[in-house]
Amino acid sequence: MKVVRAAYAGACYGVQRALDLALKAVEDGGCAYTLGPLIHNPQVVAQLAECGVRAVDSVEDVAGAGTVVIRSHGVTPEVKRSVAACGLPLVDATCPHVARAQRAAADLAEQGRHVVVVGEAGHPEVEGLVACAREAGAPVSVVAGPDDLPETLEGPVGVVVQTTQTREALDAVVAALEERGVQLLVKNTICFATRQRQEAAAALAGEVDAMVVIGGRNSSNTTRLADICAAACSRTHHVESPDEIDPAWLAGCAVVGVTAGASTPEEQIEAVATLLEAL
Ligand code: SF4
What we know:
The protein is an alpha/beta fold. It has nine helices and twelve strands. Iron/sulfur cluster binds at residues 12-15, 72, 95, 97-98, 163-164, 191, 193-194, 221, 262.
């Protein structure tokens, strides 16, 4: 089986930075706690736990001494304040692209706009964006697409977007708002790494017999890559590890494409590619 890897795939700058900072916190302070899993990749999170980087649900769950590491997709300002109030050392591994989106949400709110966040309701990054806008005093709506927009939107509107969304999702919401004739300011905060991975995945999926997308099922950006690939290649499969691959999926295929989400380390990509090449 010929295996072709997408031109851009796998761990991004922000995820790698968060991993490095968490491991350094362990080296420096003995134990590190992340509020929720550091990245949306169960295999890597298990390895991190063995190294002393533990996931907890909230600051109250931190047992004794240790450093709190904020994940790459950031937290709400309230969570940051609660860490500070506990007096625990804090390492902020919020990806700079997410921090930029948080500032954009706050700026739009400070301008007196109704802030529309294009993203996945309940995702931690989106919760952070919503909180930044609300703290700056704005009404906020989270929308996955135009159908989620509130029927009435008072006053000027500002749009900000979850860093891992597609350009199409943003454009569809913006087009619907423009049709309503609202006074609009759009901050496109989709990150460069996301765009690169999505474009490379779409291009490759159109050229191969089947696609394998590697990454956590709880990873928003990996799921989006799988959706993009499925739109161009009906034989698309999303896996977390090589042992999930069923050779029957690839019966009759000569060329299979491989891509991976921003929270998928190189070793996992290599392991899947090696297995596919041997089929
Ligand atoms: S996908 Fe983009 S925003 Fe998210 S961590 Fe990676 S570089 Fe940062």
